[in-house]
Each structure stands twice: as structure tokens, then as C-alpha cells.
Amino acid sequence: MLDIVIIGAGITGSLIAHRLSKFDLRVLVLEKESDVAEGATGANSAMVHSGHDPKPGSFKCKYNLEGNRMFPDLCKELQVAYVPIGAFVAAGSPEEEEKLENLVKQCEERNVPYEILSGEEAKKLEPNLADRISKVLSLPTTGIVTPWEVTIAAMEEAILNGTELKLNYEVKKIEKKDDHFIINDEIETKIIINCAGAHCDEITEMLRESPYHVQTRKGEYFVLDHLNGTFVNHVIYPVPGPKGKGVLAVPTVHGNVLLGPNSDEIEDKEDDSTGSGLDFVRTQISTTMKNIPFHKMIHTFAGLRPHIDLRDFYIQEDDQIKNFVHVAGIESPGLSAAPAIAKEVCDNIVLPKFADAKERKEYLRRKPFINMEKMSEEKINELIKKDPSFGRIVCRCEKISEGQIRDVINRKCGARTIKAVKMRCRPGMGRCQGGFCEPEVVKILARELNEGIDEIRLDRQGSNVLVSMAKEEL
Ligand SMILES: Cc1cc2nc3c(=O)[nH]c(=O)nc-3n(C[C@H](O)[C@H](O)[C@H](O)COP(=O)(O)OP(=O)(O)OC[C@H]3O[C@@H](n4cnc5c(N)ncnc54)[C@H](O)[C@@H]3O)c2cc1C
């Protein structure tokens, strides 16, 4: 029998698995999609908020503050990027300046570092701030990450240390038997941790009436091509409104810029289409920014916030069903809070139940993905000499070689779909959005997996035509 089953491989499930993998426990992660980070974790603003904003006294506030402090060390440990880019909250009217004062008070109370800048001071640092901006709250401890990269790295390291991951496995049924649970009539476990994001309430309903109901709220974005600081250098927030933090301009770790999101309640928990929300984003962004390079737009996407009616994170062992742990309502700032959530769940709820569990003596560390962009010419030449596939560029926009694609496939938690390759090493993320490189990626996947190409699973936008073409050309 397993010790612990985690349902959902987003950032919370994966960081919990990672923390538990340091102990000698039998842990299994179940994920209904074909890769990790396919839910809210794969589509968001990618920011580690400073903690200036959540409601005082809330769990969102507590875990955001703690998570923000943990993130730099966590990213160092996992060998993924963390950029302490800093943020500006931009006010442009007496009412907005008054709201800024409230945020300043919260920063003081929470020991969040801040500075107040006049409009002119701020515009020297951010020349594309809208002319109306008269005052800015600067938050230097705001960071940016690539959320799926953190998730993949955490899961990869957990698997290296004994954790099991089952992808394409949807939990449909849970029964409670004496001192354990049975999942889908086949998996027996002592403890369940419910990290199922937008579907947390449905998982709970398999055992009891859920104490919360998830209502998804869609947020849509424009993605701009590499601008590398020519448009914006910090994250730019408007002053928060009734629907949260508002429409942002966010530089990404890879030099793109995100513009978004809106916030619209939707019924279908899987509807990540984009459409009318983008008109709202386009109008709202001009309240904080000018000279917006919309002609550099290369992609749009939407993420779904798992909002619960309790309006806060719900992280606790169930009060009726022993050993069933809720990690629910993890909407924003859930990414920022995730390391602290994992610590709370593991150290205060789950590990005390395994008093005899020993820490692993030898903990294996993952190697970072091979990033040729960051290498010297000398190192690149050495690499190509050892393995010529690093000299074959597959993605011309992002300059990704066949060797890099092979690296991300042949790992624990390795890529199994076109999208999974894209999320790990970026072919298809650039200007052509995969138009040129996607058929090549399919062929490499088919060759490397070597299990018969019928078993390659494509992402939702993937095309079977590409698979059969690869089959003929192999
Ligand atoms: C538009 C938007 C912007 C955001 N911006 C930020 C930000 O800048 N900073 C920040 O801190 N937070 C942000 N957030 C919030 C953050 O993205 C989430 O809080 C976080 O990603 C939640 O992670 P999770 O692991 O709890 O859930 P998810 O990532 O949704 O993972 C849940 C997983 O459970 C799986 N699952 C569901 N049901 C089942 C089942 N029956 N069987 C097996 N698996 C199942 C799903 O497939 C999914 O992979 C934003 C969210 C959105 C939507």
C-alpha cells in the first residue's frame, strides 16, 4: 500500500511531492493530463508577488509573504531561473493615489520593502508609463519565474528520488476503507492530498459533500515577441480594483512581455479559449502604459483561476475524513505561495503522521536543461564535437538544437508531447509559433521514444497528420 497519493501535478502538487521526496515514503502523483503544469500553473502571469496586496489576516497573505521569501532559494536548489525584477504599482488620479497609501500601510505592517516614486522619477526608469501616471509604489522584492519550469524541475527531482508519477490518469472514484483509501478501484493509499485545482471540489464530492465550490475565472493575455527591456523593465500593476490586481505588463524570464489578464467568471472549467477578454485587456493596459507594441504580438492564451466561495486558500485535513487533505482555492497568489503551502502541508499536516519516516541519506539532484543561449562559443563547440545533434538547429526563432530537444525527452518527467517539448526548451515559443519546427519536433519525439509512434500523445492543438508524416519519413 502507498503512503501518500497526491491528486494533481500543478505547482502545489509538484512542490509537495518534491518536499516529501526527501523522506523515505511511498508517494504517487496522479495527473489526468499528458504532462505536469497543464492547469492554472501553465497559464498565468508568472509572478512571485511581494505580498503587498492580499487581504490582511488571510492565508493568501500569510503564504504569499512566506513563499516570496522562499522562492529565490528554491529556484537555486532546482536550478531554474528566478529574476528579482521588481514591480511598480502605478497611480494616475487622486483616488488611485489614496489607494496607493493603503498599500504602503500594508507594506509597513508586513515588512515588505517598498519605495514611493513621483511620476517623473518613475518615468525615468520606465519611459513607457502612461502620461497620466503621477505616483508609483515600487516593490523591489517582486520576482518572475517560468511556472511550468519550476513545476517540471520539482517533479523531475522528486522522481529521481523515488516518487512515482502517473500521467493521463484521471481520478474518477475514491472509497474510504477502514484506515485507507481506494482510488479508481485499484490504488490503495493511507493519505490523499487533493491538489486538483479547478476540480478540487469534484474530488472531495467523491467522499463527502464538499465544504467549498470552485468557480473558474478566466484571464486572457497577449504575448509579445522578445522585446528585452525595450518596452518595459519592471512588472507594471495598476492600482488594484474590485476584480483583483488588474491588467499588468509583465516581462518574462525569456524576454517576452505578457499583457493581461482580465477576470471573467465562466461555467466550463476547461474552456481556455481566448476572445472578447482581449478587448478589455487592450483598453485597460493603456491606463498604465503608452507606446504599446501590439504589432509585436505573437500569441494569445487564457488561464483559469480556481476561485472558491470561501475567498481564501483552504488548506487543511478534512474535519470528517481523516487523512484526506485539502489544498483548495489556490488562485492568485497561489504560484507565489506554493513553496510555503508545500511546507505547511508536509511539515504540519502529513509528515507528523509518519513519525518513523527517515530523511533520505543520499538525495539526488537534477541537472538543469541544456541552455545553449547561455553558453560561450567554446562550450558550444565542445558540446557539438561530443554530440553533433547540438549543431542541428530545429527552432530558428528561439535557436533550439535537436540535442536540446533530445535532452528534455530523455529525462525523468521527460516530454511526451509537442507541447511538453515546447514548455521545456521552447521550440514553437517564438515568432513562427511552431510553423517551421513542429514537424521536426514530432520526428524527434517519434525517434527518441522508440516505442512505436502510435503511442506519442499530442497536445490538444496537435495534429495527427504530423504523426503519420513522421511515420513515413522515419
Ligand atoms: C490568469 C491567472 C493569472 C495568475 N497569475 C499569478 C501570478 O502572477 N502569481 C501567482 O502567484 N499566482 C498567479 N495565479 C495563480 C496560480 O497560477 C495558481 O494559484 C496555481 O498555478 C495553482 O496551482 P495548483 O497546482 O494548485 O493547480 P493547477 O495548476 O490547476 O493543477 C491542478 C492539477 O490537477 C489536475 N487534476 C484535476 N482533476 C484531476 C483528476 N480528477 N485526476 C487527476 N488529476 C486531476 C489538473 O489536470 C491539473 O494539472 C494566476 C492564475 C491565473 C489563472
Describe the structure.
α1 (11-20) runs parallel beside α8 (334-350). The two termini are 43 Å apart. The longest helix is centred in the first third of the chain and has 20 residues, at 59-78. A hairpin with a 4-residue loop joins β21 (393-395) and β22. The model is unreliable at 455-474 (pLDDT under 50). The protein has 13 helices and 22 strands. The protein has helices at residues 11-20, 59-78, 94-110, 119-125, 147-160, 200-205, 277-285, 334-350, 377-386, 402-409, 418-425, 438-449, 464-473; strands at residues 2-7, 27-30, 47-48, 82-83, 87-91, 115-118, 135-139, 143-145, 164-166, 174-177, 180-183, 187-194, 214-224, 235-238, 248-251, 257-260, 264-266, 297-308, 314-317, 324-328, 393-395, 400-401. Residues 7-13, 30-33, 38-41, 44-47, 49, 170-171, 195-199, 203, 219, 261, 303-305, 330-336 line the site of flavin-adenine dinucleotide (FAD).
Features:
474 residues, alpha+beta, FAD/NAD(P)-binding domain, D-Amino Acid Oxidase, Chain A, domain 2, 3 domains, 8-stranded mixed sheet, 5-stranded antiparallel sheet, 13 helices, binds flavin-adenine dinucleotide
What CATH calls the topology of the largest domain is FAD/NAD(P)-binding domain
pLDDT < 50 stretches: 455-474
In the CATH scheme, the class of the largest domain would be: Alpha Beta
Beta-strand proportion: 15-25%
What summary fits the major beta sheet? Answer: 8 strands, mixed
Topology:
Elements: E1 2-7, H1 11-20, E2 27-30, E3 47-48, H2 59-78, E4 82-83, E5 87-91, H3 94-110, E6 115-118, H4 119-125, E7 135-139, E8 143-145, H5 147-160, E9 164-166, E10 174-177, E11 180-183, E12 187-194, H6 200-205, E13 214-224, E14 235-238, E15 248-251, E16 257-260, E17 264-266, H7 277-285, E18 297-308, E19 314-317, E20 324-328, H8 334-350, H9 377-386, E21 393-395, E22 400-401, H10 402-409, H11 418-425, H12 438-449, H13 464-473
Parallel strand pairs: 1-2, 1-12, 2-9, 5-14, 12-20
Antiparallel strand pairs: 3-8, 4-8, 5-7, 6-7, 10-11, 11-12, 13-16, 13-17, 13-18, 15-16, 19-20, 21-22
The structure holds flavin-adenine dinucleotide.
The site of flavin-adenine dinucleotide has 40 residues, from helix 1, strand 18 and helix 8.
